[in-house]
Amino acid sequence: MEFHYKILVVEDDDSLRCFINGMLEKNGYDVINADTGSDAEILASSHCPDLILLDLGLPDKDGMEVLSNIRKWSAAPIIVVSSRQSEGSKVAALEGGADDYIEKPFGQNELMARVRVALRHVRGSGTNRSIAFNGKFCVGELMIDYDRFRVYINGKDAELTQNEYKLVALLGQYAGRVLPYDFIIQKMWGPNVRGDNQILRVNMTNIRRKIEKDPSHPRYIFTETGIGYRMAEE
């Protein structure tokens, strides 16, 4: 399994979008592109990116409206990249749900540093704060390595798929807490598939085959019938 963070770039300037794409791909990120606000909202809900770079001056709607609409359902970090340099624009964007604000023109090193910081905050966004500092979660023979995007059982790679890894990593962030089915589905696949538990059950069945000695009597991920799933605590 090769895992890469997925970044949605919302920018209507073709040359700047290509420049940002090249920069991100060179650093190992998967990139999705949108040049309108409407496309940005559709792609955000269908692809559930790990980070969004959002221009405010879009051809069909203001980026602030896009920010507000995405924030209604997603907690993914959003970095505004805009030529609007007034203090009022920055304050409005940050208070409207943006995690960061970068003025155009910007330096390559600055943008990449802001991206890395925002993505570090993603892994520390749950209740298990130690993950943000050491990048690992361990319980029994299970270890989730958030830096390598791997899950290990007794030191051996469990060879999870991308979706399986993301599901286990999410549960690890909230270890000890029951995560409702709808919460997990929205985090994994966006708001349009909320309530469809079948895809979640299939992934969980495959995960248990790979990480549990006896999948019918799990040690690591527990089912709270009718509610959701819970990861064992450290």
Describe this protein with a few key phrases:
234 residues, alpha/beta, five-stranded parallel β-sheet, four-stranded antiparallel β-sheet
Provide structural commentary:
The chain has 234 residues and is of the alpha/beta class. The protein is 42% helix and 21% strand. The chain has helices at 14-26, 37-47, 63-71, 87-95, 108-123, 130-134, 162-173, 181-189, 198-211; strands at residues 6-10, 30-34, 51-54, 78-82, 100-103, 136-139, 142-145, 150-153, 156-157, 178-180, 221-224, 228-231. The strands form three sheets. Strands 2-1-3-4-5 form a five-stranded parallel β-sheet, with helices on both faces. A four-stranded antiparallel β-sheet has the order 6-7-8-9. Strand 6 (136-139) and strand 7 (142-145) form a beta hairpin. Helix 2 packs parallel to helix 3 (63-71) and helix 7 crosses helix 9 (198-211). The longest helix has 16 residues, at 108-123. The radius of gyration is 19 Å and the shape is elongated. 30% of the residues are buried. The model has no long low-confidence stretch (mean pLDDT 90).
